[in-house]
Amino acid sequence: MKLTKTTFAVTLSALMATTGMVSAQSLAEIEAAAKAEGMLTTIALPHSWCGYGDVIAGFKAKYPEIQVNELNPDAGSADEVEAIKANKDNKGPQAPDVVDVGLAFGPTMKAEGLLQPYKVSTWDEIPESIKDAEGYWYGDYYGVMSFIVNKDLVANTPADWADLLKPEYAGQVALAGDPRASNQAILGVLAAGLSKGAAAGEAAGKAGLEYFAELNKAGNFVPVIAKAGTIAQGATPIAIAWDYNALAWKDELAGNPPVEIVVPKTGVLAGVYVQGISAYAPHPNAAKLWMEYLYSDEGQNLWLKGYCHPARFNAMVAAGKVPQELIDALPPAASYEAAYFPTLEEVDANKAAVTGGWDAVVGANVQ
């Protein structure tokens, strides 16, 4: 019997309330409904970010009946939020079904009514500290802030944040995003603040702003959003980015130019991103099926192949579900030992300080 949307929603809601998971039968119903919808609309998923190229290809191969409509791959977390708001009443191809945003954006999107709850079948293996108890958002992967350096242009690789202030790096240092909108850049500022000894949260955000103001005044900061192309062209010889992005860019550049990636000695910051389904998703069942794929063993290992530590990493390693070659491809484990995982409150406080103070304190129009 074909379930109506109302009957299906009630059945699924009752099931999750009693078990916190989705049964195999419910997954079959979701899959059938998703295939009937025939489309999934994503946003802000560059193929080089966290292995998303392989992830999307894997989803397409498993569900060829579902077209993947990719919106604005280079968008930031704030852009994703605005895309949902702008398309609340639009069921067309410009309305995102799903989002992948920085940790701080999950709770705010829930509070604004922009997300709908859904608990994937592997819910119990997602750490409690990085998921909403009601299933509105949940952590997907994490990495640490790093420097990627064009060795054709930079003779001495900087080892720490303080090094970037040296005169030899004039006109060479960039963030991989606009710190007024990009979660990656916002947390890059937090990491810089931590390196100055500030406590995580508002204090580190303000200290990070002061650091970038100093970097900008010295003439070392470049107001260009860094990516593989700008690194290769010499526009941003030193880029501050998540380690998984830096490693993916290194693969993309394939030695032309040669690059070096370092995790700074201080201010080692771990950043968690989260998934969510738009409350206004035109294809809600395709969105749920996408989530199931992302949090399956296959999806998690594809993220790891893209140099990201997936949410279920510890549970999967314990169960022997992670190929050793994927672990070996990551930076040495010691690089992560000093990593600081900020609390949600600290991330929120930092975000408010950075987005609210960048223009006044730093005054560099990053674009």
Tell me about this structure.
Pfam families: SBP_bac_6. One of its GO terms (biological process) is thiamine transport. It comes from Gemmobacter aquaticus. Keywords: Signal. This protein has 367 residues and is of the alpha+beta class. The chain folds into 2 domains: 188 residues, Periplasmic binding protein-like II (D-Maltodextrin-Binding Protein, domain 2, 3-Layer(aba) Sandwich); 158 residues, D-Maltodextrin-Binding Protein, domain 2, CATH 3.40.190. The chain is built from 15 helices and 10 strands. The protein is globular and about 60 Å long.
Summarize it:
With 367 residues, this protein is of the alpha+beta class.
For the record, the CATH architecture of the largest domain stands as 3-Layer(aba) Sandwich
The dominant shape is globular
Determine the mean pLDDT. Answer: 91
Q: Uncertain spans, ≥5 residues at pLDDT below 50?
A: 1-25
Count of strand segments: 10
Q: What is the C-alpha radius of gyration, as a whole number of Å?
A: 21 Å
Remind me, CATH topology of the largest domain? D-Maltodextrin-Binding Protein, domain 2
Reading the helices and strands in chain order gives: HHEHEHEHEEEHHHEHEEHHEHHHH
User: In this structure, how is the largest beta sheet organized?
Assistant: 8 strands, mixed
- Termini separation (Å)? 53 Å
Give short descriptive properties of this protein.
disordered N terminus; 2 domains; D-Maltodextrin-Binding Protein, domain 2; two-stranded parallel sheet; signal; alpha+beta; thiamine pyrophosphate binding
Question: How are the SSEs ordered, and which strands pair?
Answer:
Elements: H1 5-19, H2 24-37, E1 39-43, H3 52-62, E2 67-71, H4 77-86, E3 98-102, H5 105-111, E4 115-116, E5 138-150, E6 173-175, H6 183-195, H7 202-217, H8 228-233, E7 238-242, H9 243-253, E8 259-262, E9 270-278, H10 284-294, H11 297-305, E10 309-310, H12 313-318, H13 324-328, H14 334-337, H15 344-361
Parallel strand pairs: 1-2, 6-7
Antiparallel strand pairs: 3-9, 4-9, 5-7, 5-8, 5-9, 5-10
Helix pairs in contact: 2-10, 6-7, 6-15, 7-15
Pfam family, one: SBP_bac_6
Protein name: ABC transporter substrate-binding protein
Keywords: Signal
